[in-house]
Amino acid sequence: MVTDDVVEVVRAGLRRNDRVFWLDGGGARDWSGRRSLVGVLDADDVSLTYDAGRREVVRHRGARSQVVGDDVFAVLEAEVARDAGDPDVHWVGVLGYAARPDLPARPWGLGPDAVWMRTRRISFFDHPRAPGDGVTATTGPVQGDTGTPPGWYAAAFAEVQERLHAGDSYEVNLTYRERVERDATDPLATYLRLRRRNPAPYAGLLSHRGTHLLSSSPERYATIGRDRTVETRPIKGTTARAADRGEDEAARERLATDAKFRSENLMIVDLLRHDLAQVCEVGSVAVPSLMAVETYASVHQLVSTVTGRLRHDVGTVAALRALFPAGSMTGAPKRRTMEVVDAVEAEPRGLYAGALGWISADGRADLGVVIRSLYAAPGTPWLLGTGGGITVRSEVAEEWAETRWKAERLLASVRGR
Predict the structure, then answer these.
(1) Residue 264 annotated in active site
(2) Which pTM does this prediction carry?
(3) How far apart are CA 98 and CA 53, in angstroms?
(4) What is the pLDDT of residues 66-98, one digit of tens each?
């Protein structure tokens, strides 16, 4: 079995090394590819971490750690440029929500706000197409199980509504963090439970010196191909699956036709068109797919595709920076809405709402948005981020319910249910 082979490589790597990654293709779709990338860094391999509070990028190699800059995008761009044109060199890592120092986002404060690892020794594993492709509803969430919105969420929702009616934003992605104690198992055991419950195209495990990220994300942040074409696939609009086939199809149809869901998606598509226009050739930005419904094990989601062709003077890392953070995780307009998020949300987002994936020295890249994910720093419990897009037409009970069934499978994975 391909998956058994991957697991053994990762498990062996975690036993002997504290810098390991597995970008998991086992739950992928046709559009994302079914190949796993696994890497275990040697002592003399380079990695980078970024602390947004201190504004320090630290370069790690062997026993030496040295501050090398104050902007992780700039340092990463310079590091990738050193190996320009070499397709065997990959940088694998995550950009946390506060990774861009020029935007209003609070530092995590508990661990690094970005982690990147350089390797020339990646193991590739091709996965067969799974029966049903992860679309069968096995534990359809029940709306009635989500409970009454707590006071703190209702107050945050009300403040967002005030900001929306005041014209500060058209749409705000309101999120919150939940802490779940880690049990005695290692991160790999928790991840394996998560991948069984919630297979996804942008799944994987990243472990760097006690910081762990476990992802089961369905959303593409960006790909950049050899022809310098950029593709993003923002998700905005989500409904829960139902175990009954008729109810499930009704939920899918509602997602496809409801004016609120469609307006949420359209506003983010316009934001992504704007972001891409900053770095792409004039006239090349297009929307080849608008508001398609994609079905996963626990949710239906409304997905659009926005593409463009990079200008000759824009490099891969610069393009990723221009798009960061994903518009689906901020709202529109981006900067002003991030100010609203910073004022309304009680805690910093940390790695949640960032981007996880790889960058090749030959200019290609593929990253997913960090949602449906668990993360932890040394000595901390698992942190889980969840939320959703809020517009003037949103209802507090519906939005709270959406956050809970988005989190359900993550919680079950940590608790071993």
Answers:
(1) no
(2) 0.94
(3) 9
(4) 999 999 999 999 999 999 988 889 999 999 999
